[in-house]
Amino acid sequence: MKIWFKTIFILIISIGLLACNSDESNQLQLGVDRQDIYGPLLAGKNVGLMVNQSSLDSKGMHTIDKLVALESKYNFKVTTLFAVEHGIRGDKEAGEGDNDHIDDKTGLPIISVYGSDNGRPRARPTEDQLSNVDIVIYDLQDVGVRFFTYTISMHRMMESIQAYGKAFMVFDRPNPNGDYVYGPLLEEENVSGIGIHPIPMVHGLTSGELATMIVGQGWLTGVDEYRWSLFGAEQYRLPVEKLHVITMKNYTHQQPYSLPINPSPNLATDLAIRLYPALGLFEATSVNMGRGSSFPHEQLGFPDPSFYINTQYHIDPSITAYGWPQGGKTVYGERFNYANPQHYRASIKEFVRWWLAFQHNAKSLAVAYDQEANYLDYQESHFVIRPAWLAKLIGTKSFLADLQSYSKEVTELESLVKKLELRWKKDLDDYRYLYNKYKIYL
């Protein structure tokens, strides 16, 4: 394992340093900006691109357009586009993706790697779908949160890459949540479409760093991501020479980075991206987290005036069709407003605060697991209406059980939060050791 990791590390560092002396400016260079590094690596190859609306270089040119323009210079050919959740243009809602079709602008085939097609999961392209591809380039803007699905699509693509003898390249991008690490590690029983790696809720890695960790730790498992006993199995390892991370230049995890374009429809501002790990947990509750309003992931509301803190707002009724509660209602709650969103660090505090508010208002706190199938029936009466989904989001079923137990005795917010956080401190400390092994940037 040590030899495997060192080989990957040396490969990445060498790629990142090849052009160190070519430009002495301090301007951030994204992976996609560094064509003098990746261009020669693509020579003679058919190239597939995993991209969406966030795939722009530092001058605002889309990765598709950039790579097509570079074809003749470096003697490669872009042959296929791969679309993840929200679609190739980023205009689909959560839980939706594109259907396979031809791109109007380029004439290239778009293959969806999200959702299903006639019952077949699309997540891992077939041998036929990769037949005209030698290497797939991943260039999507992640946000450093385990349940944001782009890096899950990356993982599954890497499994097809390994199975069919292709190569994989990551154009690295900043993590807008920096090197912040927080929350429980995902437990194997909670593996799902929103989490497949044993990492914390907020993992502190760029996509390139996470790809390196996935390969170095042997987390590719063929098609059986629910069996962690397969971790490290040689038959599923991606050869180190098949992974290329095009690192950024002049980047550190500490420097603020404001995304030039939304990574997904409901993450429209820097504040929403910072709040996302905390407010994303409310997907498992009856409390609206701003979806269907003008400020998604920037406010929380419930249809009871006793929950009013500083805002009330109306929710678009159309969200009901996507399975979200409180569609068409006026809700009362809290709008978040930070002068500098970079100073905000997501935690369970908002979730615990609302739990205590429901408890104070004599509302029911959580439905049973076997009631989740009809969760919208409980949107007026209970706080947690999707307990299994909460476990998948935060990573462990013990969080809800602990919250139910501890809040009977501890009702002061800060004390309750600290008591809950202690439950995963050791696991988080162990993860930080692993994190430092694969960290590329300061």
TrEMBL record:
Gene3D superfamilies: 3.90.1150.140, Uncharacterised protein PF07075, DUF1343 (3.40.50.12170). It comes from bacterium 19MO03SA05. One of its GO terms (molecular function) is peptidoglycan beta-N-acetylmuramidase activity. Signal peptide: none annotated. Residues 47-269 form the Peptidoglycan beta-N-acetylmuramidase NamZ N-terminal domain. Residues 275-441 form the Peptidoglycan beta-N-acetylmuramidase NamZ C-terminal domain. This is DUF1343 domain-containing protein. It comes from the Bacteria.
